[in-house]
Amino acid sequence: MSLNVRYYFWILLVLCLISLLVPLFLRTTFSNGLYIGEETYRSLRLGQNIREGSFLSYDDLSYGGKYLFEERLWYFLISIAPGFMVIFLPILFGILSFIVFYLLVSEIKPELKEIASLILIISPTFIYFFNIATKYTAALFFILLGFYLFKKNKFYLSYFIFILSGLFSIVSLLIVCFIFLYYSLKKEDFSHFYILFFGFILLFLVQFYRVFTLGLPKFLFPFKEFTFSNFFSFLIFGFGNQYGIGVFMFFLALIGIYCIYNEKYKFLLVYLFILLLFLLSFYFNFILLFLLFLLSFFAAAGIYHFWNDPWKSDVFRFLTLVVIICGLLFVNLSFYKGVSEIQPKVNYFESISFLSQQEGDFVVLSDSSLGEYIKYAGKKTFIDNDYLYAPDFDIRLNDFNSLLISNDINNTLEILGRYKIEYILIDKNNKDYQDEKGILFILKNSRNIFVNLFENDEVSVWYNRGILHRNI
């Protein structure tokens, strides 16, 4: 039996490695080798800055210049060999996270370890996040390892590992503290919580001591408009999101939760907890990665009960499981098919390369989702997704929205001049720019002021000749 268990593990490990390497092959073949996601280009840029001697205390490209309020250990790792590390460091943490997850499930419910691990490694969320260079992949690995060591009663080593995760993501460590607070309330023993919370406070003070001089940021949540359609599109893979949870996995997880917590309606509390995490993940996407490991476990429990609970017809049970497995595989294959469409696409990056070739230290107006690519080109952003301690963020956001809807050229020129915006990048696929109004209307009807310097099927770049200040 032990030989069979080991045999299954090695098969799953090979499948994990293949699933993580396929996107790299597809991007190299069909997307000119472009990296996946804005986080990767952020890590590459900041890693290169460290390699060149910068300590990352100030980002002079974000919002025209602002304090960089972030953990730095991840970028120090990237700086060892930026071009290599942004590709293979996330894959390494993906493999390590899979191994620890397999061992952890073996400790909790051994009968689920193979199917839970298989569901995990074929999930688009798993493949996507471990193919982008984001600090949360490292944080997740250390959190999983911490829980495994804790389960093995190696408490002091687990404390150290948990606290180490906070060097990559202090928010992730805070989530761990909340988990142990709940655990302490149940066990009526707060010793574990006190140690971890003390470590959290100490780590926060070491990494973010400037909060005492800067004060608390005005905005803690990203500027995303919440609607049920946006939330659903984000949550479910294939409905607007390229790395969401698959429908089959989602419903299997709900079934698994019900099967495990069906006493005294406990499953309702778990459902509410999962819903809360989903809501938070809409604003903080990395939570979806953490949630994936939990849902993989519950989805495995759902399949296990499907197979082992009595059915009136064994044939119908078999066919149901075949449909479920095919559904999971279909989502996996659909993700691979769309890998070449994940940003940045070739057409988008052509505009970024064009901007990088333009001389001058200028500000670029674009949608916030393109901010990291613009900064990678070495140019300043008017607005981007790194909103913490952004200067006059609320005013900038109002001015940005005004540019989208106002047909008053004087108002547009005043805003562009105030922020010294010299180039304007238009994403043609963004609905905000598709209507003949606002900035797009003015650009097309004021050719004496704005010059279209670059254009392809998806992006156009305009130059503002009416800029009041050329030297930024």
Report on the architecture of this protein:
This protein is mainly alpha-helical and 472 residues long. The chain folds into two domains: 2-340, no CATH class; 346-464, Rossmann fold. It is built from 21 helices and seven strands. Strands 4-3-5-7-6 form a five-stranded mixed beta sheet, with helices on both faces. Strands 1-2 form a two-stranded antiparallel sheet. Residues 468-472 have low confidence and may be disordered.
The overall pLDDT average reads 88
How would you name the oligomeric state of the polypeptide chains in this document? single chain
**Strand order of the main beta sheet, please?**
4-3-5-7-6
Residue windows where pLDDT falls under 50 for at least 5 positions: 468-472
What form results from the Cα inertia axes?
A: globular
Q: Helical percent range?
A: 55-70%
Structural class: mainly alpha
Q: How is the main sheet built?
A: 5 strands, mixed
The succession of helices and strands, N to C, reads HHEEHHHHHHHHHHHHHHHEHEHHEHEE
Radius of gyration, whole Å? 24 Å
Provide a short characterization of the protein structure.
This protein is mainly alpha-helical.
